[in-house]
Every structure is written in C-alpha cells, then in structure tokens.
Amino acid sequence: MSKHGWHADASEILRVGEGFRLADIDPATTPGYQGDKRRGQKDLATRVHDLDELQERLWAESRADETTDAVLLVLQAMDSAGKGGIVRHVVGGVDPQGVELAAFKAPTDEERAQDFLWRIEKRLPAPGYIGVFDRSHYEDVLIGKVRALADAAEIERRYDAINEFEARVAATGTRIIKVMLHISPQEQTERLMERLDRPDKHWKYNPGDVDERMLWPDYMDAYQRVFDRTSTDAAPWYVVPADHKWYARLAVQELLLAALKDIDPQWPVADFDVAAEKARLAAS
Amino acid sequence: MSKHGWHADASEILRVGEGFRLADIDPATTPGYQGDKRRGQKDLATRVHDLDELQERLWAESRADETTDAVLLVLQAMDSAGKGGIVRHVVGGVDPQGVELAAFKAPTDEERAQDFLWRIEKRLPAPGYIGVFDRSHYEDVLIGKVRALADAAEIERRYDAINEFEARVAATGTRIIKVMLHISPQEQTERLMERLDRPDKHWKYNPGDVDERMLWPDYMDAYQRVFDRTSTDAAPWYVVPADHKWYARLAVQELLLAALKDIDPQWPVADFDVAAEKARLAAS
Questions:
Q1: Contact B238, B177 (CB under 8 A)
Q2: pTM for the model
Q3: CB–CB of B196 and A274 under 8 A?
Q4: Taking a C-beta distance cutoff of 8 angstroms, is the pair A111, A80 a contact?
Q5: In the 8-state DSSP scheme, what is residue B108?
C-alpha cells in the first residue's frame, strides 16, 4: 500500500491536453486519488513538509545567486470555487518569505491605458519565489470575452500574446502552473447561500457574483476556448475538480510538488572556508 | 487556572518605558509566561486561531472600505536571533493574503540617493494588512552608528525623523509594534556553529555575521540609544528575550494579538438586501 492516496500522477491526469473537453469533467470527482476527505486532509498535512523543504532549497539557491528558477501558480475559477483556500491551506504551508502573492482585480484606469500584460509582468515572481496569481491575465480573455469588453479580433490577439509572453517567462526558468478550479453551479449555489446565511460571511458576498453566475455557459465556453488556445508545453493548464475542497487543495499541492521536483533545487555549497569560519567564530 | 500560560500582559511587561536598560534584560528568561517549551508550543498553536480570526475581521473591514487600520511589525535583532522563525511560525499562521512582508537589505545605489525613509515608506502596509519589516529604517541608526556610515549629527537627525515619520503613520490607524529579539552572544555562538556544522544550513551563514558579532557591545549601545530616543507612545519598542525561540514566538504572537484587539475589527454589515439576494440566487 502506498504511503499516500495518489495512485496516478496529478500533473498527467489533470493536464489539459489535445482534445480536452471541459464538459467531460465532473467537478465532484477526485481523479488520481484514492481516499476520502479524512485521508486527503492527512495527506495534505504530511506532504506540506515535502513542499516546505523543496521551497526552502529553492529559496536557498536563489539567495546564493545559483538559480533563476521560480514557480508561478495561476489560479482561475468561478466565484467561490476556492482560490482563497488554496492560497491559505496549500501555499500557506510554506515559508511566507518565499512567496509572492498577487490578486488581480478589475484593472485601474492606469492599467487599462497599457497593454493587458503590463500589470501582469510587473508581478512575476523573482528567482527563488513561488508566485501566486489570484486571477490573472486570463480575465482579459474570460470576462473580457463573455462581457464583450474587447472585440473578437482583440481576444484572438490576446491568446497569441499570452502564449508568447508565457513562453518567454518559462524560458527564464519559471515553472508555470495554470489551474482552473472547476466547481458545479449547484455547489456554487450552496457556497453562495452559506455566505448569505452567515453574517460573518456577508463581506465575501458580492451581488455581482450572481450576475456572472447567470452567464455560466458562456464562461464555460470561454474557458474551453482558453484551454484550446493556451494550454502549451511551456505553460500547461490543469483543470482541478473542486466541488470537494479537500481534493482541490491536495491536487494543487501535488502540482506544486511536481514543479519543485522538476527544478530539483540543491542546498548551495559554502563559498567560504567552513573550518576557518568555525575557528573564527569560536575565537570571537 | 488560566487557559494559557500568560500571567501578565506581554505588551506591558516587554515594553520599553522610561529608564529601560537593555543590560538588565536576561535573554534566557520568559517574562510574563509560566510554562515550559511544550506548553509554549501548545499555546502558540491554540492562540493562532484567535490571531487568525482577528486578522480575517480586519481584512474583511478593509475590503468593505470600512477601515484605514493596519498593523506594522518591525523586527530588529542581531543575526540568528530568530526573525525568520517569527515570520514563519507566527505571521505564517494567518492568511497570507492579508500579509505584506518586506525584507530590507543594505540599500541599493538608488535607495542611497534618497532619504533613508524613502524605501521604507513605500513598503508600509495598506489598510487591512499586517505588514512585517524584516530589518527596517532602524538599520540606519544601528549599523549606521556602529560602522559610522553617517556622522553623529546625521544619526541624531534620523532619530527625530523616525519619530515624526512613525507618528504620522500611527495617526493613519497603523498600529506599530517594534520588536528587538534579544539573544545572548553565547546563544548566537551555538546557532552560528550549527549553521557551520550542517551543510543544509551553510547558505544561512555569512562570514560578515562574525564581523558584526565582534562589535556586540557597540550594537548593544546603539540599541540602547534607539530605545532612549524612539520608544514613543505612538510606536513603542518591545524587547523580547529570544534565547528560547518558543518564548520569542509566543511573545510576538501576543503583541500582535494585543494590537488587533486594540483595533477590535468587526465583520462588515451587508450593503445589500440579504433576503432579496437569497431569492435571486435561488432563482438563478
């Protein structure tokens, strides 16, 4: 019996490849994982130590100027799908010093006056960091498309611009992991209703969320188009079924682990004479 | 029997007040706390939930534009005193979305061309955030004084500039908590020796640390002068004995809790019609 519940490689099984159809994915499933919520939570807690050590190694390498590697996790989803929980429970498990979070809201006037990738480029993770985008440049081809904030030709131009941009970022050593957290409309009803039921959750509720919700099929079409056009070798998409929060967290943790294992960061070798320093320290 | 080991108010007992003398503080003590490492670690884990909820309330208020309050934790210490551990084990316990970390290294040429507070001001926490400064503008009156990087008149000017700056920041609603983690030279020897003994810790060791260590008495004098000149009502200093890492973490957690309790953030009241939204959601 394996030490944990994964019986398949999450980065293979969740990856958006040739012929992928979002409509075929059931948000209530737990692909590649054998186990219930309890086991999932236990695995999450156990594997955070691996993530933690790999992140520290990566950080150490970058402090020693020995790497340009970084990780960028892009999170996209319908409202209430659990982006915040990923940030908190997965990314929150590693040393905050090595994490750069960027939450992208509707662009400001200043941002709108620039190309849509301008504000994104400024928030790319530096070497040694795990960067997390809570929403991203994909909003410009999601709500941008659904709400016709840009015309069709411009949306097409953006897919290409994104691919070129991401290829350039990946070439510098940044592992890009693009995740769509996929919930069902039924699950969203429950989660939004809970926000309405609890006064301590009212602040999380935005009447605009229901407006977007009414455009669900249009959003799913826009996501499908995003996957068709922008799931590349340099920056693949992963669709993570997210009706079970515990599974979504575990799966994203697994994707981060895979990216860090691919980097395979090593503790830097001392650039000083260890024995001489011991003597100096002892004498000081 | 109290639920936790604190028998005194950390923000009273650790505060640098009139007549404070650093030389009187024993780094191996655990003021205000009754209990050993084991109990301390348990309390740390328990009380992180309080910190977490208070931070979420503060964050919620700021999302609803209902507050300009924020918290700024300034961490200063001799090398290896445990700043990183505070960031990780205390600050790391709250939602990373509400935290802004800034690590200040030796200033760049661009920064040096400006007033010493220029780079600091840019990293102040926005409303709703807990900001953490890993080193700070105090380096400019610590290493700045000890290494005579500025003349005596300039150092004097800086104390006043700091007090004016911090008073202005506090007036906007930011609770400023300035912490010196106080270790003994003996404890530092052990910690630096451990870094030299372990290849996975070599990257944390910097031969320059021993150079600074040799100036220990000068640094203590410089800290004393900082406390005399800049522990104000608007921005008090706290000296936290730090030979016991578990105590230092617990104490800083307590100081953060006190600042958040002082803010007393409340869940924002809905600015929409809850019943109407429930009906809309159910119908959607």
A1: yes
A2: 0.95
A3: yes
A4: no
A5: P
Whether residue B1 has pLDDT greater than 70? no
- Smallest CA–CA distance, residue B44 to chain A, in Å, is 16
Q: pLDDT tens for residues A111-135?
A: 999 999 999 999 999 999 999 999 9
- Residues of A with Cβ-Cβ distance to B279 under 8 angstroms: none
The whole-angstrom separation of Cα A271 and Cα B44 is: 37
Q: Kindly provide the ipTM of the predicted complex, given to two decimals.
A: 0.92
Residue given tokens 């000068």 in the structure block: B218
Report helix, strand or coil for B111.
helix
Q: Which of B196, B197, B206, B219 to mutate to test the interface with A (most CBs of A within 10 A)?
A: B196
DSSP code of residue A90: T
In degrees, rounded to 5, the angle at the alpha carbon of residue A194 between the alpha carbons of residues A192 and A198 is 125
| CB-closest option in A64, A99, A214 to B203 | A64
C-alpha angle with apex A204: A198 to A209, nearest 5 degrees?
110
Min Cα separation B76/chain A (Å): 16
Of B188, B127, B150, B211, nearest to B137 by C-alpha is B150
What does pLDDT average to over chain B?
96
Q: Are B58 and B260 in contact (CB under 8 A)?
A: yes
Token output for B45: 């884990």
Q: What is the pLDDT of residues B220-271, one digit of tens each?
A: 999 999 999 999 999 999 999 999 999 999 999 999 999 999 999 999 999 9
* Chain A residues interacting with chain B (CB cutoff of 8 angstroms): 60-61, 63-64, 84, 87-88, 91-92, 95-97, 99, 101, 103, 134, 189, 192-193, 196, 199-200, 202-205, 207, 210, 213-214, 267-270, 272, 274, 277-278, 280-282, 284
DSSP annotation string for A147-214: TTSS-HHHHHHHHHHHHHHHHHHHHTTEEEEEEEEE--HHHHHHHHHHHHH-GGGGGG--HHHHHHHT
For residue B280, the chain A residues in CB contact (below 8 A) are 207, 210
Within 10 angstroms of residue A172's Cβ, the number of other Cβ atoms is 11
Q: What does the pLDDT read at residue B257?
A: 97
Q: How far is B66 from chain A (nearest CA, A)?
A: 11
The type of residue at A223 is Y
Query: Are the C-beta atoms of residues A128 and A71 closer than 8 Å to each other?
Result: no
How does A45-73 read in b/e, with b if 16+ C-beta sit within 10 Å?
eebbeebeebbbbbbbbbbbebbebbbbb
Q: How far is CA B224 from CA A16, A72, B232, B250, B253, in A?
A: 60, 44, 14, 24, 24
In chain A, which residues have pLDDT < 50? 1
Q: Quick one: average pLDDT of B207-215?
A: 95
* CB B102, CB B134: distance < 8 Å: yes
Of A64, A95, A210, the CB nearest to B280: A210
Per-residue model confidence (pLDDT) at position B2: 54
DSSP, res B85: H
Contact predicate A69/A263, CB 8 Å: yes
Residue found by looking up tokens 């980097």 in the block: A263
